[in-house]
Amino acid sequence: MINLVLFGPPGAGKGTQSEKLIQKYGFVHISTGDLFRWHTKNDTPLGKRVKEIMNSGALVPDEITIAMLKEELDKNPQAKGFLFDGFPRTVPQAEALDAFMKANGTAIHHVIALEVTEEELRTRIAKRRTIENRADDEEEKLNKRITEYFTKTIHVLPYYKNLGRLNSVHGIGNIDDIFINICTLLDKK
Ligand code: ADP
Fold first, then answer.
1. How far apart are the first and last CA of the chain?
2. Average pLDDT over all residues of the chain
3. 55-71: per-residue pLDDT in tens?
4. How far is CA 162 from CA 87, 156, 157, in A?
5. Where are the beta strands (DSSP E) in the chain?
6. From the candidates 49, 124, 134, 152, which is the catalytic residue?
7. Looking at residue 136, what is its pLDDT?
8. CA of 89, closest atom in ligand 1
9. From the CA of 48, how far away is ligand 1's center (Å)?
10. Whole-structure pTM over 0.90, yes or no?
11. Is 93 in the pocket of ligand 1 (CB under 6 A)?
12. In the annotation, is 49 catalytic?
């Protein structure tokens, strides 16, 4: 069982690379952003709680996010491996994830950070805005998401670096080239 965290700021290409990785390695994909969007779209009690927060571009509180994640893990006891996309986004989330993995006799084996400049992120999200029409891609909300990333989420990097599990991949350029670089890291160990 191999478990992977794909890490990076909004617009780094986590979703795009996740799809390719799932196809190749058969990971169970856990995207907390997609899960929250599913809940808000279906107007579940959880969806009602997080809708406003998400639309503002802020992070959902750890307590809610961690509980939702645990539920997803419990739904997939047969998983060959998990790919976490958009989680963890804070150090307490990273600690909770390690604890869950340990309790199941496994671990996070790889953390791959996609490195993209802030300028490129803004260009990509402006483009996505015209295609997907996500409420939180609007300029002001995007600024909030980028701020959340650089104030809270960035601290997850030294957490994994200290554990010796962090690798970076240059996230600008050809999608297939980036994918090959990720696969090379995964296949190495
Ligand atoms: P992005 O394009 O910013 O990477 P996501 O689709 O991963 O967006 O997440 C959308 C929103 O869902 C976030 O702005 C946040 O409100 C909420 N969210 C997703 N994952 C988390 C998380 N791990 N912790 C807290 N909030 C989260």
1. 13
2. 93
3. 999 999 999 999 999 99
4. 18, 10, 9
5. 4-7, 28-31, 82-85, 110-115, 166-170
6. 134
7. 76
8. 23
9. 15
10. yes
11. yes
12. no
